[in-house]
């Protein structure tokens, strides 16, 4: 029972697909009652005797057309072959089939099968009353007009609706992606601010800490002055700790950034810290390029640290991104040396190799234990963000960074930076690094990414869709073909109608020429072949024919008295001779 119930439920859902809203229910019921009620008087006028059955059948088929469009079309065509009552339903069935049947093969097959069944039943029902060719042409023209044309219009409307829905969904997707890109632009700016805060402010605070540490052990200061200097140094250390916490929060928030489809390898959204568009640090020393390294060295020397700067090789121009990366490497190395090895001499070396600039900063072990300052100060603050940012900066310009202890318990930080960076190689990171602080989303997204996505400003618009042909073209071609076919059938029908009328008409002179007793073969040579289409209503009319005779009916070419009269001619044959001929008027 459960299997039967599930099968019945599935069949009902297939035949009557929902959702059945109140407006749809009312519309469907009104349509079913209207078409079912219209089919009854049409069948009564056609005298087929199918009126009691055809009305309910039309109503049921109308309700099923949404779920079973192809089946309803075929059944409606069969019903139209039996009577004229379902002809209005044929329009609705054609519309539903064109709009709801997606597979072209099923659509063409259902229309072909419907027309063939309709034609066969029409020929079988009206055989003897009209020529078969006339019935075929009439059913073909009616089917094209009542079923195929509505189907073409319904298919056009359905395809246009589907296209508009797809465009609406695409627009909504692009709006969502636009919001995501705008959000990522803000996060990239946070990255830039965080890295500049880490590099520039951290370096300056480290210098303040070194200066105050040196003053704290100055013997010329009084105890009150030394206490004030200690407070200043502790404030610098606390400021560095708070700076690390702020930078860490910015990095943590940015690490949760959702990725946008189409971002190339150079897109920095959601990546490691410090890889956003960069420029000279606000408040930093120097210009932010290789020329600014001398200013960093001078600042460290002013703090009382022995710093040597060596240059080797023929100096060559670097790209803006590579020069800024070299500046940041030296700045981070000096800051770490001041914090972790105070008082130790520092060596900065710039070696211009044939294909890259090598930046190296080395310092030996601190003269005193790491993290200990005069007066038992707290250990140096380190957030672990600086080296990560340096590695990402170097990667984006096509270089690399190495950091680690030396054999003398010191520390070495070195970077290899190509002269042209990723720009010369066409790398993906150029837009992100060289875009500058003001590039924003346009700088990062203004070119085509490595994944093949096309970008327009800050909005990724996805791969360009293939050019689709308008649904109106195919439907218009089909409509023109149907109209041409209907015109051809109309011309063919007019010609056939004229010929049938000529085949059923006997000239008045011929009628008067024929005499009773003339052999049947001789009379038939004088008469046209006849046409049941025009003479069907004349059978059994006129005076009573002679007993045992066979009569043939024609119409006369003589003018009739009224529009509801036919001028009939009858010839009756018996035993191979003409035994009776009549010329009379018949009321229609």
**Main sheet: strand order:** 1-2-3-5-4
Q: Could you report the average pLDDT, rounded to the nearest whole number?
A: 77
CATH architecture of the largest domain: 2-Layer Sandwich
CATH superfamily of the largest domain: Histidine kinase-like ATPase, C-terminal domain
What structural class do you assign from the helix and strand content?
A: alpha+beta
Summarize the helices and strands and which ones pair or pack.
Layout: H1 2-15, H2 22-46, H3 51-64, H4 69-82, H5 87-100, H6 104-126, H7 132-216, H8 223-255, H9 293-302, E1 307-312, H10 320-340, E2 346-352, E3 356-363, H11 386-396, E4 400-405, E5 411-418, H12 421-424, H13 430-433, H14 440-445, E6 454-456, E7 459-462, H15 471-504, E8 505-506, H16 508-513, H17 520-526, H18 532-535, E9 550-556, E10 565-574, E11 577-587
Parallel strand pairs: 1-2, 8-9
Antiparallel strand pairs: 2-3, 3-5, 4-5, 6-7, 9-10, 10-11
Helix pairs in contact: 2-3, 3-4, 4-5, 4-6, 5-7, 6-7, 7-8, 7-10, 7-15, 9-10, 10-11
